[in-house]
Amino acid sequence: MEDDWNGGYMYLEKKIKHNFTLLVEKDDLKQRLAKGNASQQFAFMPDKTTQIVAGNDACIEDFPFIAEIQRHEKRRDPWEHWCGAVILSETWLLTAAACFEGRIKNMRVRCGFEDLSDPKKQIRTIRRFTIHPRYNMDENVQFDNNIAVIKLRTPLKFGPRCQNISYTTIRGSDGLKNCQVSGWGFVDANRTEADTLQFADISVLSNTKCNDLAYPTVPKTQICAYDCKNIQQACNGDAGGPFTCEINGNRVLVGVFAWLYNVCNAEKPFVYSAVAYYTSFIEKWTGIKGIP
């Protein structure tokens, strides 16, 4: 195995099953079925394309920090959208650990565009990835530590359409304002595809309120997003995509998309890995510090 792989594929080969879609534990599911309350409580990992349900068309200049991970099974196969990612620097990106199901030579990163047909994209190959060493290790938590860093072989060229974003070191949901999610893909539960980048303004729930609305329990290392009007949400496949908010007047990265409940009807919260709990992991591999 090449050194560039950093052991990531061998580790994930043991952790990821069935296109990285996971249900709650079987024993727990049996208990909930017996109680008659399991019909809308499955928890899924986002599985293919970045999706913002009922989103609005976005300008890439407003979201220059978003990137796309593409993959194909074989060299002759067409590239397809796989995950979202967030640009931390010219060579480092942040995403979800579950995005790395296969060989990195079958993956690439694109940025600097809003329209999928725009030819002015920057395309980069992946040098290596590193997932959190305790990803999905806790059987009592859905997709715990679902976070990973990517190093590119060639630096990105920064400009108005491709730029990094700082990540916050402030833990918890207090003080978060004007939060947004963004991505490409389906715009409704009927799998209607989007041609251009979508975004949505989203509220943040405290974990206590989140856990009152849905099961399984969301720990402090994850953050709940929710549309109180039950219209907008990120959906299946927005894995690794950005959740940003304003803190002290600055827009910062707060989380990367980790998992959601089974139906994209905006009736349930959707959950992000809170980056403030992973500052040591991010700094160790990228050397990039967050901001308070």
TrEMBL record:
PROSITE patterns assigned to the protein according to its UniProt record, in alphabetical order: TRYPSIN_DOM (PS50240)
Listed InterPro entries: Peptidase_S1, Peptidase_S1_PA, Peptidase_S1_PA_chymotrypsin, Peptidase_S1A, Trypsin_dom
GO molecular function terms attached to this record: serine-type endopeptidase activity
Highest taxon of the lineage: Eukaryota
Domain Peptidase S1: 52-287
Keyword check for Ribosomal protein: no
GO biological process entries: proteolysis
Keywords: Disulfide bond
PANTHER family linked to this entry: FI18310P1-RELATED, POLYSERASE-RELATED
Family: Belongs to the peptidase S1 family.
Protein name, per record: Peptidase S1 domain-containing protein
Organism annotation: Mytilus coruscus
Taxonomic placement: Eukaryota, Metazoa, Spiralia, Lophotrochozoa, Mollusca
